[in-house]
Write a structure and sequence with these properties.
heterodimer; A: 263 residues; alpha/beta; Rossmann fold; nine-stranded mixed β-sheet; globular; B: 327 residues; 2 domains; seven-stranded parallel β-sheet; five-stranded parallel β-sheet; 18 strands; elongated; binds flavin-adenine dinucleotide
């Protein structure tokens, strides 16, 4: 099975507190630690496991600037066979549809049986997979939490729906799936593994190679634009307990007793 | 000209979902004078019951009745919607697991803008729709503008738009089945097999009065012991957010949230949980909520009654000792 996995380099929210910059035009970028989007790690792991069962290859692709190359290398260190970086100045400011269109152009240069994306990334939109599928006229399923090969024409999948229930489906290949966390246990990649992929050549494709006009991508091709970044007024919010650790613990135990939090 | 807005209605076993009226509220945020049409897919008595339940809140209710729609099928639904919607339509869909399956592709097929997971809508100026979204699991909000001149597909976060009393709008039910089906049900590359219910675990957290809920902030499986110790001291049960289940540190049946359990305890203690809407979506009944988090800006502090800014690895053992010592 020829599998393409779409990945994204994002600020690592477990390593940084994300704050808004001084004039609200962006998040504070200084000292940000980046990593691969959490969901994408599960997608790459799933692709590697499928390849190891049925053969074929795994290609990871990302749309981003040259720094995005590091996440391509990281996922190759996990076990992906190839990496592709889709990068061009005119891609800056693309919305979900723009990004899906860029990936579609790359998909049409290859021959894939299965495309995986993460179910969600840092912007919380969860849109690229579904848009890509619609552009390609391939079937789509989101929030996939289990997957089983049937034959070379179709696979069996489970979508995780409300309450953790599973919607079991059969879906024809080629198709696009968005992968939910928990589908597998992504393997650990050490520094050494990443170093091994440091010298691998990663092809970079821009608008021209992909046959994309600059109007269809970037700001100009985008229907959705951010005006500003802000932190909403906390409103009521929690009463934050202050004082020394001892005092806080004491206050909290009193509150718990009053509220029935200690049986 | 009266602006027309379409709302996708989620229903189950003959009852409309809470979002059915929230979509009215969201549509009115686009334009208070909008004419709002509900679109309801399904079959038989269940479909009719759902249509009747909401008809007084909408100007018009379009129903599409087919046996194959008795189980959810986002792929077929998308094709049917494209057949019945007018050009440049504005469609609002709840941002739930079905909406996430349906909406992105629908925006492409309609050649319309896509505004995902809106938490607020501030109105339209010319063709610019202004809305609020969240990024980084709710840590940061953004104002966005969406160009709706070619139509728009909008998903609205469940619970974000307050359903108002809208009875008396005086709607009518219009059967759109023939127009949608054009004689045949659409072929798709996807076949529904069954819904498998989530497994039941050793402890039923939906019945617990006291929940000590732990998130990714616990950092390591070895640290889980301090959470169990605290729960024991308080006489409560241990629950968790999704990453703890993903890491296999607790069973799925302990997960609180939209894709886990809906709990209604008297006291909810959130340890190292950021407070994503998917997590909070599983907490009902307004419990007394205590959040302990080392990030003072964590969204969970907006939902909690009492907060402590601290490292749970230090704070939780101290709290446990104090409770055990104060008996
Ligand atoms: C369709 C869908 C369904 C989902 N369903 C659910 C669901 O049912 N339930 C659910 O929980 N999630 C669900 N999620 C995932 C959700 O989006 C979040 O990713 C998840 O809730 C985050 O869990 P968390 O708060 O534990 O982790 P994080 O968001 O990573 O937060 C960890 C928090 O711990 C704090 N912290 C770190 N270290 C410490 C320390 N030493 N001491 C104190 N604080 C510390 C950090 O400041 C941070 O606030 C779903 C997602 C999708 C897309």
């Amino acid at each position: 099975m020829e599998i393409l996995v779409c990945i994204k380099r994002v600020p690592d929210t477990s390593e940084n507190e994300i704050i808004v910059n001084r004039n609200g035009t962006n998040i504070e970028l200084e000292d940000l630690v980046y990593s691969v989007n959490e969901w994408d790690n599960y997608a790459v792991e799933e692709a590697i496991q499928i390849r190891d069962r049925v053969g074929g290859s795994v290609t990871v692709v990302t749309v981003g600037d040259e720094e995005a190359e590091e996440v391509v290398r990281r996922e190759m260190a996990m076990g992906a066979d190839k990496g592709i970086l889709l990068s061009d100045e005119v891609f800056n400011g693309s919305d979900g549809k723009g990004v899906a269109g860029i990936i579609k152009a790359e998909v049409e240069k290859g021959k894939y049986d299965l495309i995986l994306t993460g179910a969600l990334a840092d912007d919380g939109a969860g849109q690229v997979g579904g848009m890509l599928a619609a552009m390609l006229d391939w079937p789509y399923a989101s929030l996939v939490i289990c997957l089983e090969e049937i034959d070379d024409k179709k696979i069996k999948i489970g979508r995780e729906i409300e309450g953790g229930n599973l919607e079991m489906l059969e879906i024809n290949l080629p198709c696009v799936l968005s992968i939910q966390t928990g589908i597998n246990e992504p393997r650990y990649v050490g520094i050494r593994g990443i170093r091994k992929t440091a010298s691998v050549e990663i092809p970079v494709h821009g608008a021209e190679e992909l046959g994309l006009s600059s109007e269809s991508v970037g700001e100009s091709g985008s229907n959705l634009k951010r005006l500003d970044y802000f932190v909403p007024d906390p409103g009521e919010g929690a009463e934050i307990l202050e004082g020394s650790a001892d005092e806080i613990v004491e206050k909290l135990v009193e509150l718990l007793k009053v509220r029935g939090g200690i049986k | 000209m009266v602006r027309q807005v379409f709302a996708y209605i989620v229903h189950k076993e003959g009852a409309a979902d809470d979002t059915a009226l929230e979509m009215v509220a969201a549509a009115k945020r686009i334009d208070p004078d909008a004419s709002i049409t509900a679109i309801v897919f399904g079959t038989g008595d269940d479909l009719n019951a759902a249509c009747n339940e909401i008809v007084s809140s909408y100007q018009e209710v379009w129903k599409i009745d087919n046996e194959a729609l008795s189980c959810p099928d986002a792929e077929a639904t998308r094709t049917l919607l494209v057949r019945i919607l007018p050009g440049k339509a504005i469609v609002i869909i709840p941002h739930d697991t079905f909406g996430m399956d349906l909406a992105p592709g629908l925006s492409i097929k309609l050649d319309a803008a896509y505004l995902p997971d809106a938490v607020d809508i501030e109105g339209v100026d010319e063709n610019r729709l202004k809305a609020v979204r969240q990024e980084y699991s709710g840590q940061i909000s953004t104002h966005v503008v969406c160009d709706i001149s070619g139509g728009a597909v909008i998903t609205a976060r469940p619970g974000s738009f307050k359903a108002e009393e809208t009875k008396g709008t005086g709607g009518q039910i219009v059967d759109k089945t023939a127009e949608a089906l054009k004689g045949e049900f659409p072929e798709t590359g996807r076949r529904f097999i069954e819904v498998v219910e989530a497994e039941v675990g050793d402890v039923d957290i939906t019945r617990s009065d006291i929940l000590v809920s732990v998130g990714r902030g616990i950092e390591d499986e070895d640290n889980m012991e301090i959470v169990h110790d605290l729960a024991r001291a308080m006489g409560g049960d241990v629950a968790c957010s999704r990453p703890v289940v993903d890491a296999k540190w607790l069973e799925k049946s302990r997960q609180v949230g939209t894709s886990g359990k809906t709990v209604k305890p008297k006291v909810y203690m959130a340890l190292g949980i950021s407070g994503s809407f998917q997590h909070q979506g599983g907490i009902k009944g307004a419990p007394f909520m205590i959040a302990i988090n080392k990030n003072p800006n964590a969204p969970i502090f907006q939902a909690a009654d009492v907060g402590v800014v601290a490292d749970i690895l230090d704070f939780v053992p101290e709290l446990t000792d104090k409770i055990n010592g104060s008996r």
